[in-house]
Amino acid sequence: MFKVDYPRKSIGSDVDRARMVVRIAEAARAHTIICVTERGTFAQHLLDSPSQCRIIAATAAPETYEALTEAGLVTLRLPLHAIDKHRQIRHVLSVALKSNSVSAGELVICAVGQDVYPGEASLVVVTEVEPDLEELVITDLVKLTDGIRPKVLDCAVAIACKIGRAARRGKRIGAMLMLGDSLKVLEGSKQLILNPFQGHEKDNRTLMSSDIHDAIVELSKLDGAFVVRGDGFIQTAGVFLATSNVDADMPIGLGARHAAAAAVTARTAATGVVVSATDGNVRVFSGGRLVLRMDPDIAHGPIHMGDLKL
After folding, report:
1. CB 46 within 8 A of CB 18
2. CA dihedral defined by 202, 208, 212, 214, rounded to 10 degrees?
3. 187-210 tens-digit pLDDT
């Protein structure tokens, strides 16, 4: 794999970037260019460039996907948006491979437009498509702390997507699931309601039990967070978490749940999975920052690999 990061000032416009990507493709003798875009303009400039390469667009924005598809451009709908553009490349290639848009062993150019990660340099990757990208591994996108099992994150995301789909149907519910480092997460917290899991058998208070997933969706209508051990045991629900005196990197426009998840993961080793009651999107926080965004309406496939140790 060969990567090129171009500083923001080195390439003047999307037109210039498109021409540069085409030159790289021709020099590498690649037949396919995958353009990662949010607004679609970069993909259109690539399509307008004089090139024999096949152009594929990839986007996590539903409006852009619809517009590019209607325009006749082969477009991949990305279920995940990683904050790290280098990891996002692996996700894009995985989606392309699973959709049969590219083949294992094929040499492709993958270009990330500046509209995907505003303020960062453009990224162009020349790579052969690896066959093991058929299965997306969540640890390629999110670095879990010690003690959180991949299967626990898998279940938390599945439940969060179910809640997100309900929110998009007009139910206006959200949720926050804090995974791992649960004793420290609970320090300074306040129980808003009686713990609904208190006194239940262990099998009835583990995230991996599908029998209680509907109950978790119903409980998400109440205020407060779910606090879950790294092995999936649900310590409690309906908790107001302490968030003061921490330095967290909070994106503009997100609400109180997201701010709490950012703050708690900044002061602990926990990972936070948050569902927005506004847009239904699922966001994952780790180390005080947003590391992953997911669309609950798009199947993301398996996001763990067996009992992978971190």
Report:
1. yes
2. 160
3. 989 999 899 999 888 888 999 998
- CATH number, domain with residue 125: 3.40.1380.20
Q: Tell me the range of 3-12, 66-75, 165-174 where mean pLDDT is highest.
A: 66-75
Total of domains in the chain: 2
pTM given for the model: 0.74
User: What residue numbers bound the domain in which 104 lies?
Assistant: 2-134
Which own/partner contact pairs does 259-262 have at CB distance under 8 Å and 24+ positions apart?
Answer: 260/176, 260/225, 261/176, 261/178, 261/285, 262/288, 262/289, 262/290
Is the pLDDT at 137 greater than 60? The verdict is no
User: Backbone phi, then psi, for 260, in 5-degree steps?
Assistant: -65, -40
Calculate the alpha carbon distances from 157 to 46, 84, 175, 224 in Å. Answer: 35, 19, 11, 18
Q: Which two tokens stand for residue 199?
A: 């006194």
Based on the domain organization, do 41 and 122 belong to the same domain?
A: yes
In a domain, 301, yes or no: no
Q: What is the pLDDT of the chain when averaged over all its residues? A: 83
- Banded pLDDT at 306 (limits 50, 70, 90): very low
* Cβ-based neighbours of 231, under 8 Å, separated by 6 or more: 147, 149, 152, 206
Q: Note the pLDDT tens digit of each residue in 74-121.
A: 999 988 887 778 888 888 998 898 889 999 999 999 998 888 887 787
